[in-house]
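Now read the record:
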Amino acid sequence: MTNRDFTLEKYRSLCNSLLERDYKSVTIKDYLITSQKYESNIVILRHDVDRNPQNAVNIAALEYDMGIHSTYYFRSIKKVLKPEIIKSIASLGHEVGYHYETLSKEKGNFEKAIRAFEKDLC
C-alpha cells in the first residue's frame, strides 16, 4: 500500500522541486495561446475543485507565494461554487474555469447536456 500524502506541505515540496529544476508554471490558457514561445521547461498545474473549496484557496495562496500560476476548475454544485472563493483565487493571478460534467450526468444525451450546461452557466 502506498502512502497517499495530499497535505499542503507535500504539495509545497512538489512545487519546490519544480522550481529548483527551473520549470516555469503556466495556465492552460497561456499555454494554448503561447505554447510555441516557451524555450524552457514548463509545467501546467490544474486543479479540479470537487469537494472543499477552502483547500483550493490554501493551495492557490501557496502557489501565489511561490510565484506559481495554475488553473482551477470549479464544479457547479452549491458546496463548491462559491463566488467569493473563485474571486479570491482569481485575484491571486490564477486562471479559473468551469468543471463541466454535464454530458456524463445526462448519460450521453447531448440535448439534455446542452440544457444543463446552459443552466449551470446562468
In short: The chain has six helices and five strands. The two ends are 44 Å apart (CA to CA).
